[in-house]
Amino acid sequence: MNRPAILALEDGSVFHGTAIGADGQTSGEVVFNTAMTGYQEILTDPSYTRQIVTLTYPHIGNTGVNAEDVESGGIAAAGLVIRDLPLLASNFRCEQTLSDYLKSQNVLGIAEIDTRRLTRILRDKGAQNGAILAGAEAEGEDAVERALAAARAFPGLKGMDLAKVVSCQAPYEWSEGEWSLGEGYADTTQGERPYHVVAYDFGVKRNILRMLASRGCRLTVVPAQTPAAEVLAMNPDGVFLANGPGDPEPCDYAIKAIQEILETELPIFGICLGHQLLALASGAKTVKMSHGHHGANHPVQDLDSGKVMITSQNHGFAADEASLPANVRATHRSLFDGTLQGIERTDRPAFSFQGHPEAMPGPQDVAPLFGRFIEMMKARQA
Ligand SMILES: NC(=O)CC[C@H](N)C(=O)O
Fold it and tell me: Pfam families per the record (predicted)?
């Protein structure tokens, strides 16, 4: 039996479809992601907290879901919007259908709407606040009115500090990710990983931790509001600033901590929200973008080499290149809209990237940035 669902946007657009997840109501900022694969990683990326994600690829759910392809402990997105849910989920790793997965985590989803029309609205007008009603909530003459009211009641992500909401509550150690010293070493897998990295958890994706661990990092993941003094007392070789949801600007605790860590000579590497926070801590400004970047095929240019990389992206805010102070250099730029994609401090061993070098989902072109962080720690140890 099909259950009804409604998606409403703050601009008054209304879509009628079928409920594929839990019944009830949800609201958030509606964004579109153009990646063709990775729906499970997208749903569980904490950076999507309070965002309703529509996927432009039309068939979503073909391979079902499994317990491994997750970027956090559960679904973080506020809702899912798709064109078509296949009748059958089929893959040797499939443990559950996408629909059962959404229901089991009490997350709403809507299918059988014109996602091309929706995407054009978001592209032309910018990301919209929106709401989904599903099941009994979507029935009755006043359902559309209630959906529009819920969409307009969402306050918007600007000014919203979500990093401290999704962050871990207590520090923990991370070692998942195969590590070896590499070719040429007799003993490739034994012994202690050589670099101790403290990672600020603003909503960290697990594949970032895996990629650091597999390059020789022992990781201590700490809550977003951990003061710099506590981090420095752990005597790290480097500090990592994670991705995360919401607006970077209100994260004053993180900006202050990063400023204090910048006073030392510790290597710092930031990804996405971590990049925006490094920019803010260095005196630059961030801005809300129109519809942001969410996809796995975004061309980004390395400004030093001229090389163009295909990258994975998920952000709705950006550090403003025009606001960079003299001791911050632009290192990367988006070839889609010219926005800033990477920075480095000229006076400190600190750099950051706006897109996702860990690329889950996505291409691996930017993965060497992890190696750059390792080289900085190696240089400091020497
Ligand atoms: N993936 C991220 O870290 C996103 C950063 C920030 N929340 C933004 O939307 O721009």
Answer: CPSase_sm_chain, GATase
